[in-house]
Every structure is written in structure tokens, then in C-alpha cells.
Amino acid sequence: MHFDSSFLVALLAYSAIQVAALPQPPLPDVVDKGGDGDLHTPDSLGLGKAKHDEQATHPKRSPNPDDVSPLEYVVDAVKDGVTKKPAHGAGSDESIKNMKKHIKKVVVLVMENRSLDNILGGQTLEGLDNPINNKGDPFCNYHDVDDKSGRKTCAEPKEKDSILQDPNHSVSGNNMEFYGTFTPDNDDIQSGKLKPKMNGFVQEQLRLHDDSDANNTELASEVMSYYPEKHVPVLTKLVKEYCTFNRWFSSFPGPTAPNRAFIVSGTSRGRGDNNDDFDADTHGLTHMSIFEALGKADRSWKNYYVDSSEQMVDAWYFDWVFKSGNDKKAVHIKEFYADAKAGKLPDFSYIEPSCCGDGTNSMHPTGRVSDGEEFIRDVYQALRASPQWDQTLFVLTFDETGGFHDHVPPPTVGRPDYVEYEETTPNDEKYTFKFDRLGGRVPTLLISPWVAKGKVVQDGTDRNGTSVPYSATSLLRTLGYLWDFQPFNHRIHDSPSFDHLILSEKRDTPESLPKPASFK
Fold this sequence. Notes:
Elements: H1 5-18, E1 30-31, E2 56-61, H2 70-80, H3 93-102, E3 105-111, H4 116-119, E4 140-142, E5 152-154, E6 156-157, H5 171-179, H6 186-191, H7 201-208, H8 216-224, E7 225-226, H9 233-241, E8 243-245, E9 248-249, H10 256-265, H11 290-296, E10 301-305, H12 319-323, E11 330-332, H13 333-342, E12 348-352, H14 369-384, E13 392-398, E14 419-424, E15 430-433, E16 445-447, E17 455-457, E18 460-461, E19 467-468, E20 470-471, H15 472-483, H16 490-493
Parallel strand pairs: 3-12, 3-13, 6-7, 8-17, 9-20, 10-11, 10-12
Antiparallel strand pairs: 1-2, 2-14, 4-5, 8-16, 13-16, 14-15, 18-19
Helix pairs in contact: 1-2, 5-7, 7-8, 10-15
């Protein structure tokens, strides 16, 4: 690569700002404490014997010669996209200007472990690719992926508020659910030779819970069912009133903590399970996050939580938050309601529900969907009654699919950095994940008086004008445009933004939402 001296001077000035966040720190060996990649083992939830020692893991650096160094990323960014914007639409000057004019406050609520087909599968709004709208072409899984003459279970309406057997949402679990094997060939995936069949949800649920009291019919139904509109009235009203993404994928086909790291930083830096690096007393993540970016830009933020245990305060993942004295910006949810009422919400509000069993409100099994709906309703109505509502964008999303079925195959995607993750699969094989493909679809909505009513959003466009799906890093790309910070890594840089979905005229919005449904 050759460039003249004037370009080098400019490059070095730019890189002094950017490169600090990009080097990869050494990552310690870690071991998953549970067999399903979850925050709780089945033992801790009283659901039977936990499957321990299925996922001994250790992140590692990639030996591949085509990995991009931090300096090369800066060069590419300067040459190829950080400063270049499209003339119209997402990421354009006119779109960003309009967003900055109307949106002053952003509120993000991240729920837990539900796929789009599971929680929005019964929504009849045109444009949503889901079971109820695909009645003529039902989505089914054979109980044995290799036996097409055997028993199968198809997507069907769900009549229960929750489930008792939490599905597998580790990397290995997602591999089986998407590809029908714990060890799909990575080269074949990247070349397009191997595509996700989305055929292993039932088989993996039966394997994981083969020692439970539930029969195979019940186990299969737990992962293949969806909620009718009447059972999720809060979400149904929001879908009909605001913008819903049809193709928003989780950033990582694995469990909670790495996905939450992607939501707030665009990478997990090679971490693929809920290891101790995510604990508040460890704060083992040393790379750039939205919290640090906002702090350096003199923007206000708070991380509101319901329960500070179980790795459910995402700001506390990051060492900078503690070293800079910003750990006190993580506060209880009661402060959110007070701030909203007083019109004192910060620029960025990041809200986390409680997790993960009965009595929690994140929708994570075995928690009840109705309790999650009540929490969403409370947050919405507090915002709607706030004097800051007219300048607020509320993003409601989920961290990952939680092992629930979704029929839409997740795509490949650019790597955020050059760190890999290795784990031992349930059948005792080694599998290496390179962070080069997305997880399954998750429900994501934009809620504001500045978004269209009842709109279903399909793919976005990247910096080259190519049609690509949305994911969690689309949030960081959009916030970068709103608050003038650059992408932290390749994944964010290449993600589609959604600034163009902000209207130029405010519209009327409902002051309240229906009460959650009461069912079994």
C-alpha cells in the first residue's frame, strides 16, 4: 500500500484518535459454567440436572493472513467510507440533519431471548415474514434432522405464558439449530456452499432436555410455537403504531453477554459465552463502548437496571466505566421513571430488565412473557408522559433468539476484529467461530412520534449502497451519526443505519398501551 507524505500525516492524526480502541488485549482462558450458554444453569432454576462441562472455551487470536490490522482499518476507513456519505437516504447529510433536528434523547430497552417468529409470529401486519402470514407454507422441523420419514413439529400458536425447559442458545446450540450439526464447515458457509436450513431446533431441544419430565411433544412445542396477537397485546399495539424491523438479526449466534457486548460496543472481543469477564467485579472488557464514546463527547448517559446481579448491567462490563468514575451512572430503574417524569432523561438511556426465571421481566425463560409485556408498557407510558417525549427515539429490541425457532436463515457478515472463539461441543468436538455470521432474527421496533405508523422495515443499505440486513451494530452506526463519533470497528462501519426512518413531521401517538394478557 503506497500513499504520499501529506496523506500519511493526515492518517496518523486520525489514527491517534481511532487506533487506541482497536488493539486486541490478551484474553484469559474461560469456562462456561452451564451447559446451555445461559446465565443460569438448569440446576439453578430447579429444572433438572444441568449439563455441565459441555462448553469449555478459550478465545484466541486468528492466524489467518487476511486479517486486518488496526492501522489497515484506519487506512481503509479514511479511504473508503468514514467520510463518504450517500447523497440521499440512510447516512446522507440530509437524513442525518433531519434526525439531529428532531431526536435529542435515545432510549434503548434490551429484552431477552426471543426470536421474531416466536414472539411476533402471530402479528398479521403485512410485510412481516412470520408463521401467521405464511400459513400456506408452514415451517416445520423433523425430530431427527437425518430422518425425513420420521416425526415432525410445525410452528403453531402458543397457549402458555412461558416454558419450563430453556432452549440451547450457545454457539453449538445455534449451530445445531441453524445447520443441523454442531460443527458446520466455516469455509463452506462463507463460500455459500453451505446455507442454514433452520432444521435443528426440535432435535436440539430434545437432546438438551432428554432427562426432563416433559415429553417430546411438549419439548418440540416449546421451541416451535408462536404467540397470537391476543396473547401479546402490548407488542401488538406497538407493532401497529410504530416501525418494526422484519430483518433485524442478533449480532452473534450465541448467548446473552456476548450479544449485549455487541449491542453497546460492536464486538465481544472473542468472547463467546457468559464468562467472568462480564461480571461487575471483573469488568474485563477494555475496548471502546458507547458509554466511553459518549463520555468523551460530553454526552450524558445512564444505564438503568432492574436487578444488578447476573451480569445484567452492561456498562459494568467495561473497565473504562470504573476507571473514569462513571460506574455510578448505572442506577436502579426507579430513577428512570423519576427522570422521565421530571424531563431529566440523559441523552442516552440504556435499560435492562431482570433475568431470568419466574418473576423476572425480561421474557427470558422461565420468565413470563406477560411480565415482560408489563415492563415494556411501563417504560413506554413513562416516556409517553414525559415532557421529553417529543424529542425521544425509543428502541425496543432483544439480545438474541434464545434457541427459539425462526425460519429466516441468518446471513454472513464482516468480522469486527481478528479474534476467534473456540468451544467444545456437546459431542466433544472442537469448533472455532470467527464472528463472520449473524445470529437469528430478533424483534426490534422504533418507537417515537417521529416514525411512521405501522411500518415494516426490510433490509437497509450499507455505505456502498448494497442491500444488507440490520443488526445490533446498526444502532451504533446510527448513534454515531447522531452524536458525531466514528465507528469503533469494521462491523459497525459496514452496518446499515436507520436515520432515514425519522420523519420530518411529528405525528400523534397513543398515550397508553393495553394491559398484558393473563393466560396460562
